[in-house]
Amino acid sequence: MQLVVCPGSYDPIHNGHVDIITRAAKIYGSVIVAIAHNSAKKYTFSLEERLAMASETFGQLDGVSVEVMPNVLLADFVKSKGAALMVKGVRNPLDWQYEAQMATMNRHLNGVETSFLTSDPKYSQLSSTLIRDVTSYGGDVSTFVPRAVQKRLEAR
């Protein structure tokens, strides 16, 4: 059993995230879902809401915990947790290109490795931005998000 970190802003979390995190838990055994917050960035959901949605979504999944990642380098956070590596999902070549650069830098900074899980094809076009955009025009995204997210989207 290895501890890994699945970082992200999760604004909001969607079923593509759930798939990657669930698969990571099956492969590695123990996952920290690290919710990042950048005070310079505008989020749809507050840090508290994103933490609550992720906690509700993964509350019953063995080996998965949810934490707020402090405003530090991701590689430093992963290392401070004693994690074996970080796990990132990739949907397409653009994701891969960006994430490969980040993986190289994180390895350079302090030796933290990155493992990539490819997206399930049914989620390959899904993103938090798309969820937010569709919802802002009254579209139904219930098949793409966990119930904890759907409840909060309906309340908006």
Automatic annotation (TrEMBL):
Binding residue positions for ATP: S9, Y10, H17, G89, V90, R91, E99, Y123, S124, Q125, L126, S127, S128, T129
Q: What is this protein called?
A: Phosphopantetheine adenylyltransferase
List UniProt keywords, sorted A-Z: ATP-binding, Coenzyme A biosynthesis, Cytoplasm, Magnesium, Nucleotide-binding, Nucleotidyltransferase, Transferase
Single GO molecular function: pantetheine-phosphate adenylyltransferase activity
Pathway in which this enzyme or protein is active: Cofactor biosynthesis; coenzyme A biosynthesis; CoA from (R)-pantothenate: step 4/5
* Family membership: Belongs to the bacterial CoaD family.
Compartments where located: Cytoplasm
**Could you tell me what this protein does?**
Reversibly transfers an adenylyl group from ATP to 4'-phosphopantetheine, yielding dephospho-CoA (dPCoA) and pyrophosphate.
Q: How does it assemble?
A: Homohexamer.
Q: Extract one GO BP annotation from the record.
A: coenzyme A biosynthetic process
Q: Which residues form a coiled coil?
A: none
Residues annotated as domain Cytidyltransferase-like = 5-133
Q: What is its EC number?
A: 2.7.7.3
Q: What is its main location?
A: cytoplasm
What GO cellular component term, any one, is given?
cytoplasm
Report the Gene3D superfamilies cross-referenced here.
HUPs
* Record's keyword annotation contains Mitochondrion: no
Origin superkingdom: Bacteria
Q: Where is this site: Transition state stabilizer?
A: H17
Q: Which reaction does it catalyse?
A: (R)-4'-phosphopantetheine + ATP + H(+) = 3'-dephospho-CoA + diphosphate
Positions bound to substrate: S9, K41, L74, K88
Q: What class of enzyme is it?
A: transferase
